[in-house]
Design brief:
By secondary structure, the chain is α/β, with parallel strands linked by helices. Helices cover 27% and strands 28% of the residues. The protein is globular and about 55 Å long. This is MBL fold metallo-hydrolase.
Length: 268
């Protein structure tokens, strides 16, 4: 049976700390390796594991800094080597393509041909159409479908087909049809849990979830396992307990640096 697993490289919201990077997850199915999000500290995690040249694709849920800033050092690490690896897909929400191209302009070193356009040279930049009906084949048996999340900027909830297994990511989002559809029936669901408590107006404005909403979402979606992530670094234990209490019969795991979660067909 093909080995399928999720490794948490980073799970912090907003900023890294001494123990963990910001959002970044390694999805492995057989020999295929996909990076989901690349926040501050993730490039270092990849370098430490010798994976910066061994990825098959990178998928960014949205362009907030804690989910994508390290895509620039990742590009440079792939290019500034005696034998640069082939370009790999870099997928972002379709209405964020121009913002990524603008970033490529600002980080370029125009006097050095190797990094004159580092993102476009290291990656094949491609759009994620967030309609829940346009799967993108990434490599091998791995494909991803994007759904419209509810956030302050264009954000994609993701549903990965990994052979006969399903892995979903909420991205940053409030409760909405898109994230519920992405997560429904998933074997493993990685869900943001930004706030322990928050006023409804704040949740609506920023597009985030509380711990209780995270647990309720996992239960409503009927997932096999809920991984609680995107934590601020305080009240983490209380947030995990609140999500677990709200998830009902769904098993709940707290994200931590280096956590490995097997993705296996859930027994329901």
């Amino acid at each position: 049976m093909t080995s399928t697993r999720l490794t948490v490289l980073g799970f912090r919201a907003g900023r890294p700390d001494a123990e963990s990077a910001c959002s970044g997850y390694l999805v492995e199915h057989g020999d295929t390796r996909i990076l989901v999000d690349c926040g501050p500290g993730i490039a270092t995690q990849l370098l430490a594991r010798g994976l910066e040249h061994r990825l098959d694709a990178v998928v960014l849920t949205h362009l907030h800094q804690d989910h994508m800033f390290d895509v620039v050092p990742l590009a440079f690490s792939r290019l500034l080597t005696p034998t640069p690896p082939p370009r790999i897909p870099l997928l972002v929400p379709d209405d964020s393509i121009e913002a990524l191209r603008a970033l490529d302009h600002w980080v370029a070193v125009p006097t050095d041909p190797a990094v004159g356009r580092p993102l476009a040279t290291a990656f094949e930049i491609a759009p994620l159409v967030r309609d829940g009906a346009s799967p993108v084949r990434l490599a091998g048996e791995v494909s991803v479908t994007a759904f419209a999340a509810r956030h302050a900027v264009p954000s994609a909830s993701l549903r990965f087909a990994l052979g006969d297994r399903t892995l979903a990511f909420s991205s940053d989002t409030g409760w909405c049809d898109g994230v519920l559809a992405a997560a429904t029936g998933a074997d493993v669901f990685v869900c943001e849990c930004t706030y322990l408590d928050a006023e409804p107006a704040m949740l609506a404005e920023h597009g985030h979830l509380t711990a209780e909403l995270t647990g309720r979402l996992g239960q409503a979606a009927g997932v096999g396992r809920l991984v609680v992530s995107h934590l601020l670094g305080y009240d983490d234990e209380k947030s995990f307990a609140a999500a677990r209490a709200a998830a009902g019969p769904v098993p709940v795991t707290a994200a931590r640096a280096g956590l490995v979660v097997p993705v296996e067909p859930a027994a329901r």
